[in-house]
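Why does residue order matter? Because the sequence determines the fold. Keep that principle in mind as you read this record.
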Amino acid sequence: VAAVARELGARAARATDVAAKARKQQQAYLQVFQLYQAQIAQLKQATGSQPAQLVASYRVPDSDLALSATRSDDRTTLTLGCVPDDSAPLLGPQGFVRGVTPLNVGITLNLHV
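Structure:
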């Protein structure tokens, strides 16, 4: 019984030691991460320009579903929309989107001056 108690005590001590080392390592990672965040913020402030933005969208053929993804300022946004194409009957049997490219790809350019 005493040997089992010593073994359990040794295991508990090892577990406590491992947990302490993990906390210490997490704190070190957190400090490095905070340093990088501060450096990125300084760079953004120094440049003074608008952040770049990447946007991609896809409309599923013959449906009202549209998927778009936006990447800007270290954030990614995915949007799934259900937008009816009211002008579909006006575009003829092939439609404008299917007539431009077989990939259903479109380009949008926004300029902010």
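The CA atoms of residues 64 and 84 lie 5 Å apart.
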